[in-house]
Amino acid sequence: MALLPFKSRAKASRIPFKAKLFTPGSQTKVFLAGVNKGAREPEIKLAVRHAAEAATDFSWLSRGDAVFIKPVINSGNPYPATTSPAAIAAMVETLKDKGAGRVIVGDMSGVEYLRFSPVSISGSSRALMASSGIAKAVQASGAELHCFEEAGWNAFYEDLPMAGSNWKHGLMMPNILKEVQHIVLMPRCTRHILTGNSLGLKAAVGYWRHDTRLEYHRDAATLHEKTAEGNAVATLKTKQRLVISAADKLLATFGPDKGYVFEPDHGLVIASTSVVAHDMVSMAWLLENRRNIPVSVRDGFIDTNKVVPRIVNHIITSWLGGWGAALASETMIKNSLNTIWDDRVLIHSYNIFGGVPAIRLESANNTFPDTLKNRLGEALALPA
Fold first, then answer.
1. Domain-embedded: residue 381
2. What is this structure's pTM?
3. pLDDT tens for residues 204-235?
4. Would 11 be classed as within a structural domain?
């Protein structure tokens, strides 16, 4: 069956998932490296290397190539509110061992902590990188830190969305991406007060200049769909090689900056060359572990309430564009994420990236129980 016409996708994404509406995609491997609870940094770094080397043979990397690592540094809070410093260091070291020349680690933090306009900057991504422990890990591993706002408002270029998307304008992306041949995305596995979760697809927001973020939050009825579409710009489609998350700890409630930190007995590193496949597994892992936290925490008012996210989105819009923009902004409806098939971001991504991938889970080391891998596999099975 052919994919839905693109202009009808946002409408289709707001109904419950129905497999018959979507084209099955090709089989896609996602690699899982196990990490024991309380593991020390060397064990975590080894698991990251094993997962990365299982997911790709690095044939795309020529000696001396420049690689950009995109973590999530939305705040200055430690992992799992931000990307694992140990995982970043392991990825830098792996890339250098494989022949990379310049390795750059960069992001631009959330608007709660950073306000950025053509005439002013308030806040600092670099300071948040330091307080989260990421700056130290990056520098110790021999990579460069890059904070998009430090280059100024004009250090961004317009990357056009695909025809028929929900975006009204091009997405303003940082110029540093023009200087590299490859991108490695390193998100985390967390809940999010607005979208329900924050995984790989949501991490694209960190690239965007604040006028792009304003459109994203102001036109909130299609915020989920625009999240998926933001990953289909030419830069990411042509340069992103690997998506890899340390998920030995999860921010299991609320998010994206605060919430209940849960550390399962058997943690994971998740790696794939497909951001969609990665996020399907990452979301299944988030839901698997949410079942193991106290009910009083999991079903807390802030975590599950539908009105709070709408208010929060209006506040974010006011920070980005003033109260006029906030009052004119659309109503955002938060995902009810009981299964991976409830996520509007993922549902829309299937139309964009060639159908629903048939996930094949593969072990990248010997420390992840088969019983747990089988449970994840059941969560990933396409519903009838």
1. no
2. 0.94
3. 999 999 999 999 999 999 999 999 999 999 99
4. no
